[in-house]
Every structure is written in structure tokens, then in C-alpha cells.
Amino acid sequence: MGREEQIIEERIKKIDELRKSGINPYAHKFSLEEKRNLSRDIKEKYSKLDKDEKSKSLEVVAGRVMTKRDFGKISFVTLQDLGGNIQLVFQDKLTPETAIELFKKIDSGDIVGAKGNPMKTKTGEVSILVKEFFILTKSVLPLPDKHKGLKDEDERLRKRYLDIIMDENVKELFIKKQIFWSTIRNFLIKKEFLEIETPILESSAGGAAATPFKTHHNALDLDVYLRISMGELWQKKLLVAGYEKTFEIGRQFRNEGMDAEHLQDYSQMEFYWGYANYEDGMKLVEEMYKLIAKEVLGTLKFERGGHKIDLSKKWVQYDFESLIKEKTGIDIYKVGKTEISKKLKELNLEFDSNLEKWRMVDLLWKFCRKQLSGPGFLVGQPIELTPLAKRKEDDKRKVEQFQVILAGSEVGNGYSELNDPLDQEERLIEQKKLGEKGDSEAMEHDTGFIEALKYGMPPACGFGVSERLFSFLMNKPIRECVIFPLMKPEKE
Prior knowledge:
alpha+beta; BirA Bifunctional Protein, domain 2; 2 domains; 8-stranded mixed sheet
């Protein structure tokens, strides 16, 4: 019998012994007359106790046993809860015998409750001298080794619950992620945006240039797609309907590559702001990003992939055409595929020679982008790369678009929305042709959306940002910032 099998057998034996003694090792609830407090609050409340001093007050705690040390007449348990850790003290003649006997039945990983007097030990640690003790959940499997933890990345992500138990930083990460999304939500609501919900299953994949997931709706006998945008076309229909400011936070899905910055399913926010344009959007987004960083990090400075970013600095505007010419020598409006292909090869960039010219231009831009730390906005994008954006009045080759640039990447995208239904229809027809030629990122021609536009949509600005921004703030791969990322099934 291996060591783990022996531990499991011993724990199951303890479960049987508890049941025989009339104690349910899997309690229905834990509630005492006194309120249960988190460890950090108790430590703060009793931090001024002198060493060896004991309070007459009683405090109730509950959590997971992380360590157990028995020294005969005095024993200790390290209890972990959402507020951190606190030490439980079991002392001969001061702790009731019933509690001491229960202490003998517990193991690391068990969930327990305790009531007792706060005290400060000789080493100055705020602890609880146990007066009552309760076993709430008996663990069968042992926790990973305290010092070794979970070293294998796949195992950490697959067994995220253990990763969170063993690493306080991981636990804190997802608390910060909640702050991230609540800050965005509260910011927009205070700006009088209406939070809405739009369909996840759609009969056509619209609102972005991306490859969708496809499935079948049995009841309607209809092939449908998981949405690739956060209800972009639906939210524009709501602008037609008369709502002037809307936003949605939810999950969207793109059946594409996976790397440190991209996943196939992830959370996204998009807002649509009637009677505004991309310049208004840039001002609002800069204000929002600064607030997000302040609330999540407590500072406007952070690092990502070797880039140092300070959001308090002046946000630069990078012109698409000028930047590519500066960094590569290519004038995107004067050269064709041959010259661009040659430059891509010079830069050792992989590409498909069958790509349309503007997809190749986009690869050049991404090469240049990696050299920019930001904060800033990319502007002046070619119309061919953004079929849903409004043309610039002073240069019809370009659109009124802005993309947030941080640490060499695009971390947010917005534009003045195209509200000319005839222009929009023409562009979507062109996108359909590209799709028929094999462009997997080409948009579909959504006739329902065009019909809605023909009733009249006010000028508007739209913007979207995903949880990639959170991963940038945390300086971690995006997969690390998903609490339960999709994993391949374990091999049996």
C-alpha cells in the first residue's frame, strides 16, 4: 500500500469513528450565537494585546486546517479562511477535553469551526485559545505538500481549487478580477449607460472579424454560431430603437489560436454611445482605464512583458500609416502585395502568400506595435480592416477608429459607428466576397442589421475591451487569469 492510500484509509477510519460517536463529519451548517469573523479582522481587532495576554471576548472562526502540530499539553492548528490564516491554540486545562479529543481526529485539509478567546502568544502572534471546536467537513484526500505545492502547470489549472487553497496570490488574483469587472460596470452605470443582455447563439456571426464556433439548434433545426462579439449588431439595433447608451459584459467565443494573450472563450465588455464619436470615446476610455488600474492595483503604473507603463502620462496617438512607414519604410497606400510580401520576409514574419493585401498590412502593423509601450491610441486605420467603422471625413481611405495600445498590444478597440446603411451594405457585400475566397475572418452579410440601419441610427461610438486588459495589469498570461480555463481531458 502506497503512502497516499494509507492516508486515505486512516481518514476513512476517522470518519467512521466520528459517526459512531454521534458526530456528523459533514455538517449541514455552522452557526453559533456569536458572529463568525474572518482571520484578518480578528488579527486587526486584537493587534494591541500584549504578549501572553488573553482577551475575555469570544470570537468564532471557521476555515480549512492547513497545518496541525501536537506538543502534548499544547497543540496548534493553522486555520485558513478568506481573510488569510489564524492560529488555533489547544491548551491543557484551558481548552475543554471534548475539544482536545476532537483535535485528535482532524487532519490537514479538514474544514473546522472554533470559538474561543483571542490571545497573543509569546512570539506576538494573534491566536484563538479554543473553548469550543467543531468538525464541519472531513477531507479524504490529503492536500499537496505545503512547500512543493502544485508545480505542474496543467495540474494547477485543472485542479484550480487546490491551486487557490495552496497559493494566497492566486486567491487574491480572482478577488481583483471581480474588482476589475465591477469597476467597469459601476463606471458605465454612473455615466448613465444601460446594462443589457443580447443573444449568445446567433444565426449569423457578425460584429467582428473572427472565426466562430458553429453548432446546431435542435428545436429550430437551425445551424447557429456562438457570438464573436458582445452583441455589437444587437446593441446598434438598440440605438435604432432609441436607447442612447448601452453596454454588456459577458462571454464571447472565437475558434482561433491560443497564446499568452488570446483564448477561445473569454469575458468582454462593449458599450455603444449615441450622439458621440471616436474622439469622445477616447476621452471616456482613458478615464475608465485609469480608474480600473487605480481600483485593481492601487497605482497607475505597472509592467508587462518588459514594458513599463504609466497611465498618468499623456496618451500618445499613433497614426497607422505613418508608423508603418517609419518602422518598415513601407507606404501602405502606394505599394502592392509583392512589396509587402518582400518586407514581411525581410522581417522574418510568417504569412500565407494567399492573404489579401490588407491582411498583410495588418501583419506589418503588428510587427510595429510590439515596439510601443503606450499608453496611447492607434488611429487612422484603413477602411479595409474595419468594415463597421465610419469613414474619416478628411480621408475616405481611413476610418474613425481608436485602439488602446499598451505594452506592444491592442487592449481595447473602438470607433465611430457606421450609420450609413448603403455604405454598410456595400462593405458587408465586399466582406462576403472575401469570405468566399477563403478569408476565415471576413464578416457575414447580415441583412437584418442592414434593414434596422435603414430606419435610422444616430451617430455613435462603440468600444470593446476583454479580460486581456486584466491579464496585462496582473502581468500574467491570460489563461492564468481564468479561474477554470478549458483543459484537455486527463488521459486515463
